[in-house]
Amino acid sequence: MLRRSHIRLRLPLFLHRTLTSTPTQPLPDGDLHPLKPRIPLTNKTFVVTGGARGIGYSIARAISELGGNVSVWDIAPSPVEDYHTLADEFGVKTMYIPTDVSDEGSLRNALDQTMGTFGKLDGCVTAAGTYLVQPFLEHTGEDLSRMLKVNTLGTFLTTQLVVSQLRAQNTPGSIVMIASIAAQTIIPGMYFSAYNASKAGVWMLGRALAYELGPHGIRVNTVSPGFTDTVMMAPLKQDPETLKKVESIPPLKRIGKRSDVAPAVTYLLGDGASYVTGVDLVVDGGLQHA
Ligand SMILES: NC(=O)c1ccc[n+]([C@@H]2O[C@H](COP(=O)([O-])OP(=O)(O)OC[C@H]3O[C@@H](n4cnc5c(N)ncnc54)[C@H](O)[C@@H]3O)[C@@H](O)[C@H]2O)c1
């Protein structure tokens, strides 16, 4: 029988040290940093578009919970009530600015107000979005235009403004775009072609900008939720057959919750992901491979 002492004798010294050191000990070259200080978002400030409700709100809440300041830009005149409690609950600063992400002037005003209050930015999450379920031949040009304007152009313009601010500050930053599983996956019998096209644009924008902005220390990633229980899901939930289908397709056998998505986003925003750019983090209960 092979005893431990035998194994030790056979291993080269450097390999023996690597395999037997406990994970909390720094490596001899000092390259192993503790994880806990890299999870909080303390002293960072992020813009969250579409944060008045739904997934965007859950992300704004999660950023606050991790100590970050948030400026929400959303077309709704006001956010869910709970948004106003975040500052006191977590000792952070929050702002709410009614903004149309498809309108450059409206975005410029939101950035000016945000900078007036916070003085610097560390990135953004683009969650503002709109959705339309209907067969291809029933779509009008106006339908496609609306999807592209809010989902794709809105993401493009918001990111462009935030990145211009990061470049002016000469600081690194993190951008997380909420794409969708619909950017890459077709669910048989469910039709949202204009939405598919608009989110595929967001997905590719994430890859392109990761490459272009990486040399400036600006990381760009996308998060692609699967079916997630928000107001956006309401049309699908109206039909019991569709609901059953949506719940049964993912290997994890349920619809996603907003709180399934937010941790993926805060991971990508934080310093723990400092070597992660150009990825798409899929949060879909395995739907993509079903
Ligand atoms: N719910 C899902 O199943 C699901 C799945 C994949 C991706 N997504 C994406 O997640 C994001 C959030 O969706 P949600 O499910 O929370 O939906 P939601 O409808 O609850 O939230 C969307 C938010 O975007 C805001 N918004 C819409 N148009 C805007 C505009 N022109 N300017 C600024 N804000 C605008 C709305 O006011 C709302 O607060 C969207 O980008 C959506 O495409 C959702």
Automatic annotation (TrEMBL):
GO molecular function, one term: oxidoreductase activity, acting on the CH-OH group of donors, NAD or NADP as acceptor
InterPro entries xrefs: NAD(P)-bd_dom_sf (IPR036291), Sc_DH/Rdtase_CS (IPR020904), SDR_fam (IPR002347)
Pfam families xrefs: adh_short_C2
Keyword NADP tagged: yes
Listed SUPFAM superfamilies: NAD(P)-binding Rossmann-fold domains
Source taxon at top rank: Eukaryota
UniProtKB keywords: NADP, Oxidoreductase
Gene Ontology terms: biological process: secondary metabolite biosynthetic process
Keyword NADP: yes
PANTHER family: BENZIL REDUCTASE, CHAIN DEHYDROGENASE, PUTATIVE (AFU_ORTHOLOGUE AFUA_4G08710)-RELATED
Family recorded in the similarity comment: Belongs to the short-chain dehydrogenases/reductases (SDR) family.
Name of the protein: Putative short-chain dehydrogenase
